[in-house]
Design goal:
By secondary structure, this protein is of the alpha/beta class. The chain has 15 helices and 17 strands. It has 2 domains: about 45 residues, Urease, subunit C, domain 1, CATH 2.30.40; about 400 residues, Alpha-Beta Barrel (TIM Barrel), CATH 3.20.20.140.
């Protein structure tokens, strides 16, 4: 009688890219029970039930896209399905998506004790990749629910949208109470931001086992400056398109917001702060300055692939409208310099699928002011980084830190983000030599267009595995959705 194979699957002959290493080694990778079970230069084919020839492809740890927005412009059930297909197409194996009460998303208010279980019900069985949620405390009651959300639902990351004081998703607004569905007497302002930070600090103090995993993310732009500059740019009429939108939400609006957020973090002893989608030289320099001023604050700095691949001269114009805006080329190059200098902690997509019938005003398709903000891009996150990063001398190992290891560590996903025994067997197999032209028609996203249309990228995802299960294979998403909700901290011995 022959012995039973030791492993469920062996993927042979892959160049394993690990974060925090300096080499890429040709290895075989064995999987059992959805985990990496053995990694070695040679694993006998007879030891596995299934053998896959990796053909010398790069094997990146599955991408942890730590900034997405499923369910913002379409029903969550629909978005979770189509946009996780796009994620799998791009080598993403974990999506962390921002969610809140108010208009868009589920278009309802109320306590998270009632709201978030509904989010989980609508998500179940819809994602092709693993997923988790960041939540935004919009009102005072939500602050009191931070500990409940962390203990009962494994939500350990929260968010503040600093520009919502007088701006909605797309521009100036005097309907913020309705937009956020705030109760009588409630305000969404700097005082509220301070109290959110104090609430998170209390949660850290009351739950020491969770403290290192609890963090607060901030979208840093100031509504007052944006309001004044939007009026000025519109009245002058000298700028159009993305250049106009960038000028209307100027970089110093970002930079000043970073300073205010950092001061409040120091005042409230809120020590784990994530500065999201820093888009400009002024914003990133402000973030680096604040790290020096408040060295005891554990800052993390995020940049998006959109702000690295696009500038204000992008021919796709209104399709690339996003908050904070796409910036001039000099800002783009500064961001790349800081990525190379290890001043950026992770890179994300900020994926927010917005279909063409919603994205721009159909009667005025070129009007940047009437277009909605946000676009998808998770399917191009890894390919874009491999393509453009390689040109600039960014190592594969550093890339793995930026899109896998670092976000996994920060957001309480110790079982993700690396190719190591005991970790979830999440893999993205990439051909670094295959060149392709971005075409929206080839995307799995439900968006129907892309601001990256026509860009030539070098480095294509060929296969994606989630916990050892093949979910994307040479251009096709395969199988039913296998993604599971990740209660954090999700560790090597976790759920």
């Amino acid at each position: 009688m022959s012995a039973q194979p030791r492993y469920d699957k062996v993927i042979k002959n892959v160049r394993v890219v690990r974060p925090y290493r300096t080499a890429v080694d040709l290895l075989d990778v064995a999987v059992s029970g959805g985990k990496f079970a053995h990694i070695a230069p040679e694993i006998a084919a007879g030891e596995a039930r299934e053998v896959v020839d990796g053909k010398g492809l790069l094997a990146f740890p599955g991408v942890v896209d730590a900034h997405t927005h499923a369910g913002i412009y379409s029903p969550l059930e629909q978005d979770a399905l189509t946009e996780s297909r796009a994620a799998a197409q791009g080598g993403v194996t974990t999506m962390l998506t921002y969610f809140r009460t108010g208009q868009y998303y589920l278009n309802r208010g109320g306590p998270y004790a009632e709201f978030f279980p509904e989010v989980l019900r609508r998500s179940e069985g819809r994602y092709h990749v693993d997923y988790g949620y960041h939540l935004a405390p919009i009102n005072a009651r939500h602050i009191d629910e931070i500990e409940l959300l962390a203990r009962e639902h494994g939500v350990t990351s929260f968010k503040i949208f600093m520009f919502y004081g007088s701006h909605g998703l797309h521009g100036r607004s005097d309907q913020q109470r309705q937009f956020l569905m705030l109760g009588e007497g409630e305000r969404y302002d700097f005082a509220h931001f301070e109290f959110v930070m104090r609430g998170l600090t209390r949660a850290m103090e009351n739950n020491p086992a969770l403290a290192e995993h609890l963090s607060l993310s901030l979208h840093c732009e100031l509504a007052e400056i944006m309001t004044a500059y939007t009026e000025r740019v519109e009245q002058e009429g000298k700028l159009k398109g993305l250049a106009a939108y960038s000028a209307a939400r100027p970089p110093h609006s970002e930079g000043l917001a970073v300073w205010i957020a950092s001061y409040l973090a120091n005042e409230t002893h809120c020590v784990n702060i994530n500065l999201l989608h820093l888009s400009s030289r002024k914003a990133l320099e402000a973030a680096l300055t604040m790290q020096q001023v408040f060295p005891h604050i554990n800052f993390r700095r995020e940049v998006t692939i959109g702000h690295l691949l696009l500038d204000v001269d992008a021919p796709t114009a209104v399709q690339a409208k996003v908050n904070p805006p796409i910036r001039p080329r000099e800002d783009v190059e500064f961001l790349w310099q800081q990525v190379l200098a290890r001043k950026v902690d992770w890179i994300v997509s900020d994926h927010a699928c917005c279909a063409s019938e919603l994205k721009w005003e159909q009667s005025q398709p070129g009007n940047i002011w009437l277009a909605k903000a946000g676009f998808g891009g998770t399917e191009y996150l890894l390919a874009g980084l491999v393509s453009e990063g390689s040109k600039r001398g960014l190592s594969y190992n550093h890339m793995a830190e930026l899109v896998s290891g670092n976000p996994a560590r920060r957001y309480g996903l110790a079982g993700k983000g690396d190719i190591a025994v005991g970790h979830d067997a999440d893999l993205a197999l990439v051909d670094p030599d295959e060149t392709f032209t971005v075409r929206a028609a080839e995307s799995e996203s439900g968006q129907g267009y892309t601001p990256f249309e026509g860009q030539e990228l070098r480095g294509r995802v060929k296969q994606t595995y989630v916990r050892g299960q093949l979910v994307f294979d040479h251009g096709t998403v395969v199988g039913k959705p296998v993604g599971k909700y990740l209660r954090r901290p999700y560790g090597l011995d976790g759920p």
